[in-house]
UniProtKB/TrEMBL annotation:
Record keywords: DNA-binding
Entry superkingdom: Bacteria
Pfam families named among the record's database cross-references: TetR_C_29, TetR_N
Comp. bias (Low complexity): 1-11
Protein name: TetR/AcrR family transcriptional regulator
Compositional bias of kind Basic and acidic residues: 14-29
InterPro entries: Homeodomain-like_sf, HTH-type_TetR-like_transc_reg, HTH_TetR, NicS_C, Tet_transcr_reg_TetR-rel_C_sf
Length: 225
């Protein structure tokens, strides 16, 4: 009986310490919850993800999770927003305005492909949200501004290319980005079935590097005069 009581006191003590730590460093706690939730939603989707599992991954109790994010749906939306903010923020490192038009397009294509490779959880979240027809993503107001900035930079790059007589006049910046994203997304989201069907390991390094070159070639060929 005393051991049981001691164990209970220990568990309660750990929980209290975790809660005090969360209160002292709310930004770190929020980041921990988002990281844990990203893994849980990427692995199990919106329907299969469990709040208990997220709290356990983050090392907090559910009460703290609800305090920061309200409920499971709000947490899922926050995860989606952070995922998109991550890729849009990383894209800024390319400095498209400082590059020649064709070089800028090539760099964006390679960046997007490599980002997809390094962040498989991003592709999983995209798949989940598309199954729900962007039900939660449509609720976000933060993402519209991020994507309009990307389209603005692509438009400026295309304008410079047109002025130099390199790119066609009718290229839509959205179509350009969809070409880049589709070539990367389809390959990675279907790599296991395609590898099995065609008898080639699409996940091996040589295959991945070859596909990166193909993405750049196809993208540039599609917009040249």
């Amino acid at each position: 009986m005393e051991k049981a009581q001691a164990g209970t006191r220990g568990r309660n003590g750990n929980g209290e310490r975790a809660e005090r730590s969360a209160q002292r460093d709310p930004e770190r706690t929020r980041a921990s919850i988002l990281a844990a939730a990203t893994k849980e939603f990427a692995e199990n989707g919106m329907g299969g993800a469990r709040v208990d599992a997220i709290a356990e991954r983050a090392g907090i109790n559910k009460r703290m999770l609800y305090h920061y994010f309200g409920d499971k749906e709000q947490l899922y939306l926050a995860v989606l927003e952070e995922a998109y903010i991550g890729i849009r923020t990383a894209e800024k490192s390319i400095n498209l305005s400082d590059l020649e038009p064709e070089e800028g397009i090539a760099e964006l294509a390679m960046f997007t492909w490599r980002y997809f490779l390094e962040h498989p959880e991003f592709l999983s979240l995209l798949g989940t949200e598309n199954l729900h027809r962007a039900r939660w993503l449509r609720q976000s107001t933060r993402l519209q501004e991020l994507h309009s900035q990307l389209m603005g930079k692509l438009s400026e790059l295309l304008d410079r290319g047109r002025a130099k007589g390199i790119f066609r006049e009718d290229v839509d910046p959205l179509h350009l980005y969809l070409t880049v994203a589709a070539l990367g997304y389809f390959y990675l989201s279907n790599q296991y079935t395609l590898s099995t069907i065609f008898g080639r390991d699409l996940a091996e390094r040589a295959s991945l590097e070859g596909w990166e070159r193909h993405i750049v070639h196809v993208t540039l060929a599609s917009i040249r005069r």
